[in-house]
Design a protein that fits this description.
The protein is α/β, with parallel strands linked by helices. It has a single domain, classed as 3-Layer(aba) Sandwich (UDP-N-acetylmuramoyl-L-alanine:D-glutamate ligase). It is 30% helix and 20% strand.
């Protein structure tokens, strides 16, 4: 049994360093570096939580192909319990990540890879876990509001703390129309996700809308500025040299959840989250920083 269950996406990232999408499409080009990395919202979170000495399991889709075997072996090496058997008739999701000179990333992904097949039947939750983190909201078209209501209500019936991390909306979703939000204890999203989900450019208005939907705690990730929580912006405590923002949000959430797991005050959860998110930006790859002491 694991104290923290992470649900959602795992994949293989193919990272192309120092290139923008326009240059990429211009023809032949020699990139500074091309590397592969294990990625996906849930995988990144689980790896960081394990690095922080948390007892963690992951419920994800692992495909029956060579890349799926690599992901499964990587997770086991990290001490992460894999809750799901290998899934037949799907292919491991490959994500091409273009990293520009500012460290910002642009994704090219498949419409059909393994993370797009994630559904309610793939979810495994330990009866005695303390925290569930649904790391990949909107990542799969099979996980709509109705399915999330079923999952989230079940989690809350068990008395488990529910954390949910957003991803970009896919079908012009509106927070005001989503019944699942009222079950969430801690909701994480970045500024662009908040604006799209709340249909407003005012980030403080977005926070208010999300709170009105019944979410108990809303944390809006603001990149190098830190995060917004209950109307206040909490800035990171140190400057960083950003080379790649891939996985920074996942690392922030993992750090925050680690704080919750250790019964830290919210301001300390934010501090740990900001530190983990910042460290993620200092290396190429979604969880590469955890291999550097």
């Amino acid at each position: 049994m694991s104290k923290i269950n992470v649900l959602g996406a795992s994949c293989i990232d193919i990272l192309v360093d120092h290139i923008d999408s326009k240059t990429f499409l211009s023809g032949k080009y020699k990139a500074d570096r091309i590397k592969t990395s294990f990625g996906g919202d849930a995988l990144n979170e689980a790896v960081v939580l394990s690095y922080l000495k948390e007892d963690v399991s992951i419920s994800t889709v692992i495909a029956d192909d060579p890349m799926g075997v690599l992901i499964q072996n990587f997770l086991k090496e990290k001490g992460i319990i894999v809750s799901n058997p290998i899934k037949q008739n799907v292919e491991t999701y490959l994500s091409l990540v273009l990293i520009d000179e500012n460290g910002e990333r642009h994704f090219i992904g498949s419409k059909n890879g393994s993370l797009r097949s994630y559904c309610l039947e793939d979810v495994c939750i330990d009866e005695d876990c303390k925290i569930v983190s649904f790391a990949s909201m909107f990542i799969s078209p099979l996980f709509d509001d109705e399915q999330m209501v079923k999952l989230f209500s079940l989690i809350k019936e068990k008395g488990i703390l529910l954390c949910v991390d957003c991803s970009s909306i896919k079908n012009n979703e509106d927070a005001k129309d989503m019944s699942c939000l009222k079950y969430i204890d801690y909701f994480f999203c970045n500024t662009s996700e908040a604006r799209a989900l709340c249909h407003s450019e005012d980030i403080h208005a977005c926070e208010e809308v999300l709170c009105q939907c019944g979410i108990k705690n809303v944390v809006i990730k603001m990149g190098e500025k830190g995060c917004l929580y209950k109307g206040k912006i909490y800035a990171p405590q140190r400057n960083i040299q950003c080379v790649d923002t891939t996985g920074a949000g996942d690392s922030f959430v993992a750090g925050f959840i680690h704080g919750l797991s250790q019964n830290e005050k919210i301001k300390d959860c934010i501090r740990i989250g900001n530190e983990c998110g910042g460290r993620a930006c200092e290396y190429v790859g979604g969880n590469e920083w955890t291999t550097h002491q």
